[in-house]
């Protein structure tokens, strides 16, 4: 199985999330498993979280899985604060 890894931008927010989501959705359209590298992402807002949730939902709808790799401390804190650590498969490597 081919796993597609996509690197998230430094800021995943309202100004970047829509275009980034479109690119990622195309690149994982035929994948059953994809991973998002969040190691360089220093800021994420509700739009960014929405994009991650949307991508996760699309993969799960076809029996796939989305993994989040190495979220920065700030991103990890927000994911835990919003309890999304219960939704996403998060890998700290």
Description:
The chain has helices spanning 17-27, 46-61, 73-81, and strands at 4-7, 11-12, 33-37, 43-44, 65-69, 89-91. It is α/β, with parallel strands linked by helices and 93 residues long. It has a single domain (4-91), classed as Transcription Regulator spoIIAA (2-Layer Sandwich), CATH 3.30.750. The strands form two sheets. Strands 1-3-5-6 form a four-stranded parallel beta sheet. A two-stranded parallel sheet has the order 2-4. The model has no long low-confidence stretch (mean pLDDT 92).
The percent range for strand residues is 15-25%
| Second rung of CATH, namely the architecture | 2-Layer Sandwich
Question: What structural class do you assign from the helix and strand content?
Answer: alpha/beta
Terminus-to-terminus distance:
21 Å
Mean pLDDT: 92
Biggest sheet architecture: 4 strands, parallel
Give the strand tally: 6
